Amino acid sequence: MAWTPSATDTPFSRLGGEERTRRLVETFYDAMDAHEPALAKLHKLDESGKVSRASRDRFALFLIGWLGGPQTYIEQHGHPRLRMRHGQVPVDVPMRDAWLRSMARAMDEEQVDPELRAFLDKRFAEVADFLRNRP
């Protein structure tokens, strides 16, 4: 039987909390910088050409809340409104797939628990496809 989250067993807690979620985000952006340059260029970059600290921190806050942890992102930035916030970004099938590859690399490297991984693979794919605004 597949794992499903509960009030006491959230993806956030199963992943390992804030520190581990932030590590996953760092690994995700490092994978993006290394393997998906077209996708990385859609983000604000720092002076070294890597995805900026601000982008990394903002996504970490979002992901912490999305996984069931503290809702600091919403407190600081309001409702995520993902489609609206990504409306100016060309999200086509290749960009969606590049994002998913980067996250898969990060989850591989961070050795995410297999039950949680199966859950997250499905959820990330649903959200990534939802954000597609180009064929």
Structure in words:
This protein is mainly alpha-helical. It has a single domain (15-130), classed as Globins (Globin-like), CATH 1.10.490. It is built from eight helices and no strands. The chain has helices spanning 11-15, 17-35, 37-40, 53-66, 72-77, 82-85, 93-109, 114-130. The longest helix is centred in the N-terminal third of the chain and has 19 residues, at 17-35. The model has no long low-confidence stretch (mean pLDDT 92).
Proportion of residues in β-strands: under 5%
The CATH architecture would be: Orthogonal Bundle
Q: How many beta strands in the DSSP annotation?
A: 0
**What's the mean pLDDT score?**
92
For the terminal residues, how far apart are their CA atoms?
A: 35 Å
Rg on CA atoms, Å: 14 Å
The H/E string reads HHHHHHHH
Helix content: 55-70%
Counting structural domains, the number is 1
The global form is globular
* Category from helices, strands and their pairing: mainly alpha
The fold-level CATH name is Globin-like
Q: Unreliable stretches, pLDDT < 50, 5 or more residues?
A: none
| Tally of individual helices | 8
Described by strand count, sense and barrel closure, the largest sheet is: none
Give the CATH level 1 class. Answer: Mainly Alpha
